Amino acid sequence: QIGGFAWENCGDKRDPVVLQSLSVAPDPISIPGSLRISAAVSSSKTMAAPLKAVLLVEKALGDLWIQLPCIDQLGSCTYNDVCTILDNLIPPGTTCPEPLLTYGIPCHCPFKAGSYSLPASDFVLPEVELPAWMTNGNYRVRVAVSSGGEELACVKLAFSLQS
Fold first, then answer.
1. 6-161: which CATH number, 3.40.630.10, 2.70.220.10, 2.40.50.140, 3.20.20.210?
2. H helices of the chain, where?
3. What are 106-127's pLDDT values in tens digits?
């Protein structure tokens, strides 16, 4: 599907972490602009450090999908320690930012097993200097999260960007 927001779980049926629902508006996503997201995730297992995330990011070029490289931590990157990245963004001991705080969604490892749900919430996408290869277009992203070599979650997203 070219254009239009879509998502699916791509993991094994035994993956402990499953995206139950996800909606994003507007479509296409506008940068800068406001993004309204609602989501629900269930986890049958605590996710603890080290958490590894592997991203595969592709952009449509005509009928072809081109894999985008990992440049300055953007693109098809492997993050070996997501917990430390979160700790650097939000120092441990500080409260999680809104709307996570209101809905009891954790922003630090370990993430306890359970169900987490984010009702429709608005996020501001600031004016950012995106590299030329990350501008307008249709994208596909695959995110796989694992710990100790065991896959915990796998999600595929498709979306369009306009700046």
1. 2.70.220.10
2. 82-89
3. 999 999 999 999 999 999 988 8
